[in-house]
């Protein structure tokens, strides 16, 4: 009798342990509990069924696109942790950092409602993911393989977090912007031929289902590699090879190469010196564009920015046309300068934030938030050194509506040009903080004196800016 009781207890213990390890009842293709018990019930992109009684209140996101999209849905409070490369938006830098390549105990100790990953992590760090699932943490693997899956991906993030209404509005705005781009593109008769390099390994390009291929179309370009065959069915990547690229050399008017951490293409210089590439029309005409993969291939709302950057590169005479405001402010002058110099907008990387000696970090301004009309050009102008910030009580300001002084503008002109230097008499030169630079600017005819005075603290006028920039 005692032996039988001991045996039954042992069997019962095994069953209990098995049930515990099976929490939270997520198993590939198998449904253990009635779906009616859950408000959230779907299959993720690694084939696991996700079931939750209510939206997640604490989230650890281990993929930068997830993090970016969660912030876009207004989930600042709910995000308690991010991955090692998550640097956008700036608020992500204030979150605790977790690494799927390290010990899972740090994540387990945080006890999040949900850990968001992508299938790549599932494949490359399976033990890490299994450890989380064994402790009952809900792990959700998401990644849209192509452009047409973007909606579904965003809505799954929304279901997990209770942000369905916010997501629907964001998607409506997103597609309204795309439709506007498409309408513009349809008006362009002679579309530029474009080749997109997704990786310099085996000279890979993208297929027609990819986000970059759609971006080229929305920007008014013609994808020269539209005949690319995917490396596997449904893939957005294709091997194109040097022979086919050179065969179409005369059709490639703009050569776009994506830069970033994952499988990046070559840079401008390496592409220009490749054997045989000197016959490519884009290389001969210096029309090789480097674009950050975060705004062209990553499944985020910043895809809109990537399209705009392509438009600027394809048709600078239309989309980099100088717009002259009546009053020159720091914001409007930033816009003028980036268009005038055809500067691509700045996109930060994880390594960028490791430099502790920077005067300004991208996204840190209190008065220039992500939704500011001039956000990208202001941040790019700051990275080029055209302007300086002001810090008050550890809070950083740009003052976008502040007028620009004549001396400030002279400093910018000095930065963006090469000049001859020669002494030149200016009556109020001692009132200038940078007398040598002021002399150089005036001597080279980029700014005028008034009755022999430079008047460095006066607001720069529209006529001053036009003369300084269009001096040919």
Overview of this protein structure:
By secondary structure, the chain is of the alpha/beta class. A 5-stranded parallel sheet has the order 5-4-3-6-7, with helices on both faces. A 4-stranded parallel sheet has the order 10-8-12-13. It folds into 3 domains: 2-166, Rossmann fold (3-Layer(aba) Sandwich); 188-320, 3-Layer(aba) Sandwich (Rossmann fold), CATH 3.40.50.1980; 330-335 and 337-469, no CATH class. The chain has helices at residues 2-21, 64-72, 105-110, 119-124, 126-134, 150-161, 164-186, 211-218, 242-247, 268-272, 281-284, 303-314, 316-319, 330-341, 375-383, 406-416, 435-443, 462-469, and strands at 40-43, 49-52, 59-61, 79-82, 96-97, 114-117, 138-141, 192-197, 204-206, 221-223, 237-239, 254-259, 288-292, 390-392, 395-397. The chain is built from 18 helices and 15 strands. Strand 14 and strand 15 form a beta hairpin. Helix 6 (150-161) runs antiparallel to helix 7 and helix 16 (406-416) packs across helix 17.
Separation of termini? Answer: 105 Å
Shape: globular
Q: If strands are numbered along the chain, what order do they take across the biggest sheet?
A: 5-4-3-6-7
Look up the CATH topology of the largest domain. Answer: Rossmann fold
What percent of residues adopt helix (DSSP H or I)?
Answer: 25-40%
Q: Looking at this structure, what is the CATH superfamily of the largest domain?
A: Nitrogenase molybdenum iron protein domain
What are the low-pLDDT stretches, counting only 5+ consecutive residues below 50? 1-34
Radius of gyration: 27 Å
Number of domains: 3
Write down how many β-strands occur, each being a DSSP E stretch of 2 or more residues.
15
State the CATH class of the largest domain. Answer: Alpha Beta
Count of helix runs: 18
Q: Main β-sheet, in a few words?
A: 5 strands, parallel
CATH architecture of the largest domain: 3-Layer(aba) Sandwich
Mean pLDDT: 90
Structural class: alpha/beta
Range of strand content: 5-15%
């Amino acid at each position: 009798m005692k032996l039988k009781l001991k045996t039954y207890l042992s069997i019962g213990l095994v069953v209990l342990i098995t049930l515990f390890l099976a929490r939270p009842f997520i198993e590939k293709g198998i449904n253990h509990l009635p779906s009616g018990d859950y408000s959230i019930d779907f299959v993720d992109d690694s084939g696991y069924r996700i079931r939750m009684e209510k939206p997640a209140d604490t989230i650890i996101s281990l993929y930068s696109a997830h993090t970016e999209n969660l912030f876009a849905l207004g989930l600042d409070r709910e995000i308690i942790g991010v991955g090692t490369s998550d640097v956008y938006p700036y608020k992500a830098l204030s979150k605790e950092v977790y690494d799927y390549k390290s010990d899972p105990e740090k994540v387990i100790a945080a006890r999040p409602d949900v850990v968001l990953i992508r299938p790549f992590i599932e494949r490359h760090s399976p033990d890490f993911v299994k450890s989380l699932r064994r402790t009952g943490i809900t792990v959700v693997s998401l990644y849209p393989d192509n452009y047409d899956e973007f909606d579904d991906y965003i809505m799954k993030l929304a279901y997990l977090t209770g942000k369905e209404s916010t997501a629907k509005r964001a998607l409506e705005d997103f597609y309204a912007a795309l439709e506007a781009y498409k309408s513009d593109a349809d008006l362009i008769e002679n579309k530029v031929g474009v080749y997109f390099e997704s990786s310099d390994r085996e000279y890979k390009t993208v297929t027609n289902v990819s986000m970059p291929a759609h971006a080229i179309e929305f920007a008014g370009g013609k994808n020269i590699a539209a005949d690319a065959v995917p490396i596997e069915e449904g893939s957005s990547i294709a091997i194109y090879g040097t022979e086919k690229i050179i065969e179409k050399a005369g059709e490639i008017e703009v050569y776009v190469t994506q830069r970033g951490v994952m499988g990046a293409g070559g840079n401008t210089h390496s592409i220009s010196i490749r054997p045989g590439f000197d016959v490519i029309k884009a290389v001969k005409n210096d029309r090789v564009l480097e674009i950050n993969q975060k705004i062209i291939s990553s499944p985020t709302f910043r895809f809109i920015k990537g399209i705009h950057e392509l438009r600027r590169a394809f048709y600078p005479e239309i989309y980099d046309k100088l717009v002259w405001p009546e009053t020159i402010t720091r914001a409007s002058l930033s816009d003028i300068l980036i268009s005038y110099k055809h500067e691509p907008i700045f996109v930060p990387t994880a390594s960028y934030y490791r430099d502790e000696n920077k005067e300004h970090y991208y996204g840190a301004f209190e008065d220039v938030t992500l939704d500011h009309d001039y956000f990208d050009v202001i941040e790019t102008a700051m990275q080029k050194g055209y302007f300086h910030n002001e810090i008050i009580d550890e809070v950083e300001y740009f003052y976008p509506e502040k007028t620009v002084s004549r001396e400030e503008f002279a400093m910018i002109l000095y930065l963006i040009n090469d000049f001859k230097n020669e002494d030149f008499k200016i009556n109020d030169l001692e009132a200038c903080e940078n007398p040598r630079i002021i002399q150089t600017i005036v001597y080279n005819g980029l700014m005028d004196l008034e009755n022999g005075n430079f008047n460095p603290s006066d607001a720069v006028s529209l006529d001053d800016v036009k003369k300084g920039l269009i001096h040919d």
